[in-house]
Amino acid sequence: MAFAGEGGSDGQRKLRVFFIPFFAASHIIPMTELACLFAGHPGVEPTIVTTPANANLIRPTLDHHAASGCHVHLLLHPFPSVDLPASVENLSTVSAEESWKIYKAVELCRDIHHKLLTHHVPDAIIADIPYWWTTDIAGELGIPRITFHVVGVFPQIIMNNLAKNRVHDNVPNDSHPFTIPDLPGPSITMVKSELPEFLRLHDHVTHAWDNMKRSQLESYGVVVNTFYELEREYCDLFKVVDSQRAWFVGPLALRGKREVEASFNKERCMRWLEKKEVGSVVFVCFGSWYHFKDEQLRELALGLEGSGKDFIWVVRGDDEKMKMEWMPEGYEERVKEKGLVVKGWVPQAAILGHEGVGVFMTHCGWNSVLEGLSFGKPVLTWPLVFDQFINERFLVEVLKVGVRVWDGFRSSSENDKDKVVVPAEAIARAMKKFSESNEEEMKKRAVQWKEIAGDAVEEGGSSYKDLNCLINELLMFNKKKKNGSQ
Ligand code: UDP
User: Record's family (predicted)?
Assistant: First the structure.
């Protein structure tokens, strides 16, 4: 990628940018992709600040980039002591019961970051949203802190509005629909049970929310993994109400080279897909950390089988789940012609990019939203937690590229016991109905998004320009600071 503007190989010291990702694969992967893009600029020296096990996740990607001359450094600190097994350092590897310890570890990073940043004094910090204190540290050091968001602008605006207006506090019950206030675009209704837990209860996000928002608004600007054309009117509003400056640089999955996933089941999935007809396979994946309860896994297994469709299904879970005792007897043998069940991790972006995949059954995590669109796949939506029900509205009601798997009661609770088990028949029905009725129109729209997303990251596209702009602003800030005018 060629960059225009300030800095370069003129013998001056490079701009040292520190990237600090939250402890979850879905944050670390796109932030690494962003750091690698920065490394393509001759005037920039990016460093990722993280812990040893999280560094292992991204090392293959960093090595790959280093081989082509783009170096991203790693600055490691120990994972804070929160009584987790060795090497369990992110949401993707922790058990559901112990996930709160990851958030505890985040809080404990405050002092670690202060020590590291005041010792190394970078020229700019790009830190994930939970690390709100980095705006204050950047202020002490007289350098810019950019807030990094893996969540799209549409869900951010809705969550902000609800956190401010709290219209959901006045509904008679959890299933009573209400309209999101102050939102551009089509009117969107939600029900309370589907709102992120932090808006309904008092959790770790509620606790940190005011600090995170203040820190975002006081930070130099916000960089978001989205692209302007996708969320145009929401991006315009976001620039005014939620940031001093904003850059929309995604989809990062289309821009980075995702070596992180290369070794995990890639060959197996690709070989299996090669034998399938174009557009015949439903790819079923629910992100990097959510674990279904056994009963739901069993119903899902039977639903996929009952649909009669070809599928690749990624099953995640702790060691207990991975023993597959929940699986109906003889299941894998029975479905082996139609279905591939993969335990753990697959190369999602590569699978979505394969022409054999026709539909993406997704939990609507924002990375998955972007990746589905980037590869032009319509979606069957099954949101589970946090912003995912809001993202579903975006896919189904704003973009009209998907339909819901289940229309009964749904809860965004992270606690399994609050979720209604979606029965196998409903899953099979949704899959059949989708391909019989709506698929062609949705496919067309999804393919259009693929083209628009591709254009955004190409030279001269909106995301390409925004990234250039961000880097140049940081270089300029640094130059002015050195000249004493910042
Ligand atoms: N992912 C993957 N393989 C898997 C599961 C997830 O590559 O088996 C990647 C996926 O491509 C996406 C990220 O992990 O980039 C998941 O992020 P998302 O925001 O969709 O969901 P979350 O993990 O936060 O629930």
Answer: Belongs to the UDP-glycosyltransferase family.
Determine the atom of ligand 1 nearest the C-alpha atom of 342: 8
Choose the residue to mutate in 316, 348, 381 for probing ligand 1, maximizing ligand atoms within 8 Å of C-beta. 348
**CB proximity list for 474: less than 8 A, separation 6 or greater:** 15, 17, 123, 124, 144, 146
Question: Cα(110) to centroid of ligand 1, in Å?
Answer: 26
Q: How far apart are CA 483 and CA 74, in angstroms?
A: 29
Token pair for residue 167? 């219209």
Which atom of ligand 1 is the closest one to the Cα of 258? 7
- DSSP state letter for 14: P
Write out the two tokens for 157: 């605006």
Return all residues near 210 (Cβ < 8 A) that are at least 6 apart: none
User: Read out DSSP for 79-137?
Assistant: PP-SS--TT--STTTS-GGGHHHHHHHHHHHHHHHHHHHHHH--SEEEEETT-THHHHH
Assigned token pair, 475: 């270089």
Ligand 1 nearest-atom number relative to CA 290: 25
> Which positions are catalytic?
27, 128
- Read off the DSSP letter of residue 45: E
| Residue 148 β-bridge partners | 128, 223
pLDDT tens, position by position, 428-478: 999 998 877 667 889 999 999 999 999 999 999 999 999 999 999 999 999
Measured in angstroms, how far is the CA atom of residue 26 from the centroid of ligand 1?
5
Cα 92 to Cα 64: distance, rounded to the nearest angstrom? 23
Where does ligand 1 bind, in terms of residues with CB under 6 Å? 24-26, 29, 261, 285, 287-290, 314, 345-349, 365-368, 371
Which residue, by CA, sits nearest to atom 7 of ligand 1?
348
**Main-chain phi, psi angles of 434, to 5 degrees:** -60, -50
Tell me what pLDDT residue 4 has: 43
Which residues on neighbouring strands pair with residue 224, listed in sequence order? 149, 248
Give the global pTM: 0.94
H or E element, residue 312: strand 310-315
Ligand 1: atom nearest CA of 384 is: 25
**For residue 314, what are the CA distances in angstroms to 186, 300, 361, 387?**
34, 11, 11, 21
Q: Each residue of 116-159: pLDDT tens digit?
A: 999 999 999 999 999 999 999 999 999 999 999 999 999 999 99
Distance 132 CA to ligand 1 centre (A): 24
Residue nearest to atom 18 of ligand 1 (CA): 365
Asked if the interface predicted TM-score (ipTM) of this complex is over 0.95, the answer is: yes
In whole angstroms, give the CA distance from residue 260 to residue 58.
6
